[in-house]
Amino acid sequence: MNDSTQRELARRMAEDSTLTDLTRRWKDATRPYRYTYGFTWLGIPVIQHPQDVMAWQEILWRVRPDLVVETGVAHGGSLVLSASMLELIGHGRVLGVDIDIRPHNRAAIEAHKLAHRISLIQGSSIDQATADAVYAQAKDAERVIVVLDSNHTHEHVLRELELYSPLVKKGSYLLVFDTAIEDCPEDAFPDRPWGKGNNPKTAVREFLKTNKRFEVDRDIEDRLVVSAAPEGYLRCIAD
User: Fold this and answer.
1) pLDDT tens track for 149-193
2) Domains of the chain (ranges, CATH numbers)
């Protein structure tokens, strides 16, 4: 099967309303069981849908970045995911940014066999001092991938997009996770400051109204079916 045939099948799959409804209902049904918390990458909890992990490694292999900047560290599994791909590629670094890097998570990351490819910055990703520190780390990097996965409110993510999108150049990617919050029931996040109408997807949509350097990579999204990041795989199409 050639690539064009596979893309057409993926497009038709994405437009299948029956499958889309089944997917949404499946995600709603698995949410109480914390489905995404059940996976690790090289021993560290990754807290992602397996489909998104597959897409992530494809992007890393294709772009071969000099630097991956990720806001939101949690246990560090996604940092290790990026670092493992960069180790295979043979170059590149990963920079994790979080307002609260818990000591046991920092210890696990720093003790990992891939720690030599990982650096950490503790601070709010939307503070100018934190952004300045990130840019200082990125000054010699030609190809940068940015991954946003920290506070999921509209205001916070939009500010992250404004601060870090200039790091991403043509051919690279800006990944925004948990855009799927917009597609969840109204009462899905009663103890969180985000929810329907106030989340990463609403921020992405506002960002794309004025920033024409990026577009949603529909080829990736069509193939995934199940994803925490619908409309969140942003490809840079202009410097």
Assistant:
1) 999 999 999 999 999 999 999 999 999 999 999 999 988 999 999
2) 3-236 (3.40.50.150)
What is the residue-wise DSSP string for the chain?
--HHHHHHHHHHHHT-HHHHHHHHHHHHHHGGGTGGGG-EETTEE--S-HHHHHHHHHHHHHH--SEEEEE--TTSHHHHHHHHHHHHHT--EEEEEES---HHHHHHHHHSTTGGGEEEEES-TTSHHHHHHHHHHTTT-SSEEEEE-S--SHHHHHHHHHHHGGG--TT-EEEE--GGGGGS-TTS-TTSS-BTTBSHHHHHHHHHHH-TTEEE-HHHHHHHSS-S-TT-EEEE---
pTM above 0.85, yes or no: yes
